[in-house]
Structures are given as structure tokens and as C-alpha cells.
Amino acid sequence: MKTVILSISAAVLSLIIQPAYSQTQPNVAAPPAPAAAATAGEIQQLQTLNGKFPEPVPEEQGVPSPPIIPQLDTIVDDEGQISTYNTAGQFTAPSNDFFKSEGTNGRTCFTCHQFSDGMGLGQEHATDRFNADPNDPLFRLIDGATCPDDDVSTPAAMAQAYSLLTAKGLIRINLPIQPGFQFQITNVTDTNGSDCNTNPNTGVTSPTTGFVNFYRRPIPSTSLASESNIMWDTREPSLVHQAMDAELTHAQAANVPSTPNLNAIVSFESEVYDAQTDDTGLAGISVGAGGDLTGADGSGATGGPVTLSQAIANFTTGINNPFGGSFNPAIFTMYNAFGTLTGTDTQTLERQAIFRGQQVFNTVQFQITGVNGLNDVQGQPSITGTCGTCHNNPDVGNFSSNVTMDTGVTDVSAPNGASSNLDESGLPIFTVLCTAGPDAGQTFTVTDIGVGMISGQCQDIGKTKVPTIRGIASRSPYFHNGSALQITNLVQFYNARFNIGLTAQQQSDLEVFLEAQ
Predict the structure, then answer these.
(1) The pLDDT value given to residue 60
(2) Sign of torsion, CA 86 88 91 94?
(3) What does the DSSP assignment read for 141-176?
(4) Please, how many CA atoms are within 13 Å of residue 152, restricted to the half-sphere of its CB?
(5) Is the CB of residue 488 less than 8 Å from the CB of residue 268?
(6) 451 SS3 class
């Protein structure tokens, strides 16, 4: 562990960011400032680091994509089965740029967005891939390691270098501290065995200059038609622009991909939907308990990705926003039919638990306090709400408009001891002092500065987007930083954070419901 205390009086270096790409892209929306400087600075820094610390491993094929992908592709996961549904029908994977290597390190979009993981990246499968082949393109120094200067000369060294990726499914990103930020980074502690944030070659050079390294989960490339913001910190203005930046950073492309290639990637990922289609049940209830979740057996349930795609077809930005227009707190209704079941057989008991968990999500009220991006924006120190107050998009579960908030996941010590339910080991710790604006003088201690690194505003420190919860059983761990190792930890965190007071039965039911997403 290495800690660097940065002098507040250190000279402020001029950070001049030149875009790393100059080719005109007519279909690529230009990001607004200062997000433009953030994304350009990220690309420039990674290209610089790539020159300093070249990849020592050869290009490898990695996990091959299946040659033919059916319209409904079902894969076994820890909780039963998850299915990927493509509204465009069956297609040949190698023909699509999503599955092609456009860069120099062997990676494709598919490298980090797998069918088996709900089009995301599950920690368990990342570990399996490392054990099978540590030269898999997933494991690249540029962002898969804790730092691009990590030692990977031996198997043991490689295991340490890629420990956050195999333990929590985390990818490293590198963002510039920009002039005009309302805050300074006064203290940095690297806790993962590297010195990526404290080394001036790769990290922070003064309280107001340099680059900051964060470790985040890849956001699933699925159900994107219902997303109102892109990336955990919302720095990307469009899916096309995000695809371009991903090729230039994660894939280390030497040139900007062509507009047709980028459009092909976005077209594919915009047609894909993922959701759980079969439930095996939790411990204490026999395997195979819940069974089919789609209603194919006549149960009346409407889970699965096909009905999800139909629900998202009705999406509009701001739909069902609890703070504007008409709000229906019954966010999820897929398992209403399970509520009328009677009997004591294993399957009925599990389906009843799924329904009860849906009711917990929709109806259990609690006081929401201390959430930047919510309480302050609404001017209400305490808001009576439910899980659906933040996860309000019907049958999807993300926030339906471009809202980001800090519920305490980025805090080193969240209120009410909630952080005890999280595993924050290996994450950097930043002490951030606000020097301007209404929060001047306030200090934050966080593992991720979040949206604050894009806006430069103190009010945005620690904020992240509210993600979809569909298909989450296939891609643990949870939260942007992988700190909730299991769904149980996620539920316990919020139960403590907001003093919800869930009973043991309610917690179990909510977990069963979330695993049936």
C-alpha cells in the first residue's frame, strides 16, 4: 500500500489535452465540454502509456464467438438460465464488427461483453479465462492490470497484476484532472499492490494535475434502447462515440474505426436484450425450484428477454419519473401471476417467494436521505420512497432519465455502517477537498470520484448512473466497483444504508426476485 499526501500549494501545471483523433466522423456526436476533454485526455494518456509500457504478450484469439447465433440464445448461469434475444433474428457473428478485432491487442467488443454474462463481464468467468489462458486478450496491461507498468514476467506476477479483474471483474480507466475543477485531490492511497495513482508517470502529479485511475465494471451492452446516459460517469454522448473511444482505448486501435464499422457495432448491441429465463432457486430450496420464468409453461409469468424487448419498445426518456409527471410505483409486474399460486410443492414455494420479492421491491417504503443527486436536487432532506424511486423504468429498473446519484457506494464509510457489507479491498482511496462553489471547504473520502471527474463540480463527487437490474444474476459482483460480491451483499447494503428494516424473510424474497431478473 502506498500513500501520497499532495501539497495544496503545489504548482498547478498546465494540462493541455489534444484530441487523439482527427478524422472527421459525421455520425459521431461530439461530447460536450468538459466531457470532451475527459474522453480525449483518456485516449491520449492510454496511447502514451502504450508507448511506455508495450504489451509483452502475443496477440491471442481469446474466447471465440459462436459462428451462428440464434435469435434466442440460452446459456446456463449460477441461478438457472439466462437468454440473449436479438430482435433482428439469427445472424452470423463473424460478419459483425462487434466480434471483430479492430485494434492491435486481439480484443473485440465480445471480449468484455459475453452472452454468458448477460452481455457484461462476470468475475467468475474472468477467473476461469485467466486460469485457462493468462494471455487471453481480456488480460492486457493497458487497462486489465492494476497499472500498465505492472510486472507480468511470471505467473505469480501476472496473477497479482490482474487481481482486480479476476476478483471483481474490474477494468481500469484513466481520466485527466482538468483546469477549473472545483476540487483538489489532497491525498491518494493505492491499496492494490501497485502505485498507479501515486506514481507521477501514471497518476496524480499534484492536487490539481495529472491522471486519476479508477477501477470499474464493464456496463452490459444490452437493453440499450432504455438507457438515457452512457458509462458509469455519463461521459459519452452517444453509443457511436462510445464505440469509437472503446476501440481507441480498450482495443488499442491505431486508427479511428470507420463510420460503417462503428454503426455496425451499435446496430448489433442495440438489438440485443438479456434476462433470466429459468430459476434454479436458492439454498434451502431444491435445485430447479422456480423453473420457467417466461410463461412458456402456461404460468402467466412474463419474464425473459422477449417480453423485455417489448417493454423497452415503449420507452421514452423520463418515463415513470417519480419527480415529474405520472409515477406508478409498481415497477415490475412480470411475476404477478405467481401471486395467485397455492400449494406447497417446491416450485410453487419458489414462485411465491419471487412474487413476494417483487412486492418488496415495489411496495416497501423507507426514508431516502443523504443522496446527492436526489435529496439535494429535490430540496427534500428526506424522501419517502421505495426501490423503484431510483430504479423506476418499468420492467427494466434503471433510472429513466439522465440522473446520477451517490447512494454511498463510493464512500469509504457509508452511513449507518452500510460499507461493512461491501468489499472495497484493492480500490484506491482519494481525499478530495472542495475549493470552490457552494461545497467549498467540504472533504470527501471516496474510492471513485465518479461524475465529478467529468463535470469538475463538487456536487457530483461520487455520483454514478443507476444501472438496469435485468440479467444481473449472470454478472456478479455488483455496483460499479464490484464491491457487492453477491446479491445478498447488495440487499444488505441498502437495508443498512437507509434503515429499511427488512425482515430476514423479506431480504430472502428480494434476493430471489432479483436473481429472477
Answers:
(1) 55
(2) negative
(3) TTTTSSSTT---SSHHHHHHHTHHHHHH--EEEEEE
(4) 24
(5) no
(6) coil
Give this prediction's pTM: 0.90
The residue type at 246: A
Backbone angles phi and psi of 99, in degrees to 5: -105, 10
pLDDT in tens, 427-479: 999 999 999 999 999 999 999 999 999 999 999 999 999 999 999 999 999 99
* Cell 452490459 found at: 220
How far is 138 from 125, CA to CA, in rounded Å?
11
Which residues contact residue 344 at a Cβ distance below 8 angstroms, ignoring those fewer than 6 apart? none
pLDDT digits (tens, 9 = 90+) for 346-355: 899 999 999 9
Please state, in angstroms and rounded to a whole number, the distance separating the CA atoms of residues 120 and 115.
8
Residue with cell 434451502: 284
- Cα–Cα distance between 224 and 236 in angstroms, integer? 14
Cell numbers 409498481 correspond to 330
User: How far is CA 18 from each of CA 15, 22, 33, 40, 209, rounded to the nearest angstrom?
Assistant: 10, 10, 13, 7, 16
Give the strand order in the sheet containing 183-190. 2-5, 183-190, 429-434, 443-446
How many other CB atoms sit within 10 Å of the CB of residue 64? 11
- Domain ranges, ordered by start, for the chain: 2-9+33-515
Side chain identity at 41, as an amino acid letter? G
Strand pairing partners for 69? 91
Largest CA distance in the chain: 72
